Amino acid sequence: EPTVRTELMEQIPPIAIFLQESRPKFPTAFFEYLMPIVVRYLTDVNNQVRKAGQEALLILLEQDLVTQSDIENKVCPILLDLSAPDSDDEYKVEAVNIICKMASMLSRTTVEHMLLPRFCELCSDGKLFQVRKICAANFGDICNAVGQEATERLLIPKFFELCSDSVWGMRKACAECFMAVSYTTSPEIRRSKLSPLFISLISDTCRWVRQAAFQSLGPFISTFANPSSAGLYIREDGTLSIRPSMEDVNSNSCQRSNSITLMSSSTNAA
């Protein structure tokens, strides 16, 4: 029964955490018994079972419970098969979604060598716009996962393709993640390539794309600032934040010091 398999998948993460905490007693139980089940259910015939398996896999990755060898030898090959050009449409959409979510949890080497080539192929998928939409929506995360060199060499050309896609939703998704992509590139690439590209989005024929671009304008401009002087940086969740300057930190510490001095003076006077 699919409901039984779905329920089983939901219990895998807490069992895995228990086995990890009790590893001296169960040194190989997770790798021998549980991990093969998770991998197998990624290709289950039932949609709900596959979804539960994908969620379980992400939790296991977040908890750092899956070994590098299992990721490279068991998980990635399955995802590459599911996202192959001749794969079933539903499986392909699910696979690209899980690849994008996994990228931030894996090592840069694994992402670049095993998943990045397939991601670049999926960005140009002419059959399913849903696949391209997922790639566009997660483009900034993939750039952050592989770093500047791979982004400029492999991803920026694909980003240009998506920014000129015939489906306006694709262009809107690109506008929304523009800051994250820009932050991963060099100042020269920002100035010479991304700036003209951003202007094309701001001038887009679709008002939803233009609106998304204008909302990203400030964050995009912020990527041109020197982080050490402007105090701007990107958090792990991809949002823009401001790091207080040393002057502010020193000022706050001085104020705290003065207040402590005043408090101790008043205490002595009492």
UniProtKB/TrEMBL annotation:
<feature type="repeat" description="HEAT">
    <location>
        <begin position="115"/>
        <end position="154"/>
    </location>
</feature>
<dbReference type="InterPro" id="IPR016024">
    <property type="entry name" value="ARM-type_fold"/>
</dbReference>
<dbReference type="InterPro" id="IPR021133">
    <property type="entry name" value="HEAT_type_2"/>
</dbReference>
<dbReference type="InterPro" id="IPR011989">
    <property type="entry name" value="ARM-like"/>
</dbReference>
<dbReference type="InterPro" id="IPR051023">
    <property type="entry name" value="PP2A_Regulatory_Subunit_A"/>
</dbReference>
<dbReference type="GO" id="GO:0005737">
    <property type="term" value="C:cytoplasm"/>
</dbReference>
<keyword id="KW-0677">Repeat</keyword>
<dbReference type="Pfam" id="PF02985">
    <property type="entry name" value="HEAT"/>
</dbReference>
<protein>
    <submittedName>
        <fullName>PP4R1 phosphatase</fullName>
    </submittedName>
</protein>
<dbReference type="InterPro" id="IPR000357">
    <property type="entry name" value="HEAT"/>
</dbReference>
<dbReference type="GO" id="GO:0019888">
    <property type="term" value="F:protein phosphatase regulator activity"/>
</dbReference>
